[in-house]
Amino acid sequence: MESNLKPDKPGRTKGARERLIVIDYGTIAEWTGLKVATVREYARQGQYNARDLDSVLTWCNSRRAAAGLPPIGQTTDNQDYSTDSPPFPIQTPQVITGGYNPMKGDFNG
């Protein structure tokens, strides 16, 4: 007798979701400068909803603003690079004379 618990696709169970980001109490504690136990207690008291990203970010940013820190997602005024330089190096494309040409089905050069 065959089990009904076997998934259709063995690599992934039915109904499983892929995790895009993970923000746990340790991350929230790091952002706010508090201890993990304190962050959990504030969530339990209802100061923020730990399962709602907007609630977590709003609460963290208000704590950071009170501490004089920039909000999460915004950079500080301290820049380690010159403002007149581009944010990434610009390289001119190189002409490749050899290599496989799939249009010809043969190698160039």
Question: How would you describe this structure to a colleague?
Answer:
Helix 1 (25-32) crosses helix 2 (36-45). The N and C termini lie far apart (63 Å). The chain is elongated and about 70 Å long. It has a domain at 21-73. It has 3 helices and 2 strands, in the order H-H-H-E-E. A two-stranded antiparallel ribbon has the order 1-2. The protein has 109 residues and is mainly α.
Mean pLDDT figure:
77
Order of helices and strands: HHHEE
Secondary structure tally, helices: 3
What is the general shape?
A: elongated
Strand content bin: 5-15%
- Using DSSP, what is the number of strands? 2
- As a whole number of angstroms, the C-alpha radius of gyration is 26 Å
The major beta sheet can be summarized as: 2 strands, antiparallel
Class per helix and strand makeup = mainly alpha
Major beta sheet, strand line-up: 1-2
Percentage of residues in helical conformation:
25-40%
Distance between the termini: 63 Å
List the helices and strands and how they pair.
Blueprint: H1 25-32, H2 36-45, H3 53-66, E1 99-101, E2 106-108
Antiparallel strand pairs: 1-2
Helix pairs in contact: 1-2
Task: Spell out the key features of this protein.
109 residues, 2 strands, 3 helices, mainly alpha, two-stranded antiparallel ribbon
